[in-house]
Give the backbone structure.
Amino acid sequence: MIALKDIKEEIDNFNNNYIEIVPGFEFNQKETINKIYFYFNSQFESGEFDDQGDKKYFYNINRTSCDVGTKATDFDTKDINIQTAGGGNPLTTWFFERDLKFWMKDQKFGKVLNRIFHELPIFGSVILKIIDGKPYFVDLRNFVNDQAADTLDQSDPIIEIHNYTSSEFRRIGKEKKWDNVNEAISAFREGNEDYIIVYERYGEIEEDEKYPYKRIIMADVGREDGFILKEEEVDGHPYREIHWQKIPGRWLGIGRVEILFDPQIRINEISNQESKSSYWSTLRLWQTRDEGINKNLLTDVENGEVLSVESEISQVDMADRNLAYYNQEITRWLRNRDELTMSYDVMRGERLPSGTPLGSAQLAAGMAGSYFDQIRENIGLDIEDLFYKIIIPQFQKENKAEHILRLAGEDLDKINNLIIESRTKDKLFEFLAKEKKLPNIIQFELMKSILAEQVKKGKEKMITMPDSFYKNIEYKIDLTIVGESLDIRIKAANLFAALQAVTADPTLLTDPTKRKFFTAWLEQGNISLIDFEPEIKQPSIQEIVAKRAGGGISKPTIPAIPVAGTMQATL
């Protein structure tokens, strides 16, 4: 059994103990996170004023670097593409990808991605807590773990700290069905605490020479003992971690603010020294050897007055001759910032120095882009794992039953053609069963034309997705995260190469074996062959009749059309 004092002792050790990464290099996670909050928000740890009572100015150099990191690695839900694995059905994948993206839009998953890429360059690590299949962000200020662990799976214990008002505590306790809620609130009101502190702890507990892994939720209301709200044995913790960059020996990733600790300190020193110097340089002082002069020339002497003195009065030179040094020193540390974070002017979107060759600019941009591509790939792997294990299973769970998928634009043209082809086949078999013969070419074209007019109505279509349509698709997809780093010129070249290939060998679209190879090659360049299937333009009834000018035709007998907007399982 674990007591409140044991949890407090674990938190105290985390806050105050340092780990030694290598001899002479110590690290404390809590201290580092607090320092990041100070520096990113342009605050001094020692306060706003110096020892002489003068205000200190913070020359922030890390915000821009963090923004560059966010922009260089960010991707959105539109950049997440589903590919068909071997043996899969490309059409099923096509529906799955569009359905998934609509669902992610409804779940506002794009905001989750935006926040991940905003916080990662700042703190170096982001923690997502998965509750009922949905991700929630964890505040690193209220998170306790083994700071020397490589991953959270190796951390024991893990503690998340929550601060609640009494009304909030009562509401959440009722939702979560916690025990001892009323008793904890009564004890809280007898004390002088501002909040009810709730500790959510994951880790092993010694019980009868056994070590079960448990989740314990305990309330601290300011007394020596706490109230156990919930205790249960679980398989593991609900946290997912994403890191910017990692080094062995510590769990917390290295963000850009931490990398710039020393340049930030030095630039602040130089800036405030220059600021102090400017105070002195604005003073007007005079000097004389005449002991009879004992007045302030700015206030006690009138304009035009003649002074009778035994020694001349001269102005004291207060000019600052270190301005060039200050500028050189700041430039040197700013250059160090760019070197440490690859935040060169070309990455910041600034105009390059006059005379810089275009080739040099492209080379610099390419090298910096390669640096961020590696970081982006590592982040993408973590997010891909999140998709496979959390997001997609939750999507399949919520969309297991029959549901509606809205299609518009190019997607609408694609589904219309598919529906026309499917229903034409049904009508063809119905005609054959009834008339005991195949329709002639005119009857067939009329059949398709009437179906096309019935199907192609409206600017959008609501497609009914059958029950359990995606039941086994988890075995048939490959998730690829493409994003903004995809070179548009390369994609355009791939499209042109595909056009040339089809022109040279049209059987790429008709031969089953060649089509599979061709589809796989296109998907490697984030191109779906289904998106480029030609739209089938059906001739109108008048055009068909005009072809038979001078003769009449019988009106074909066409069975009733199924309800528009319903997708057959064969699709």
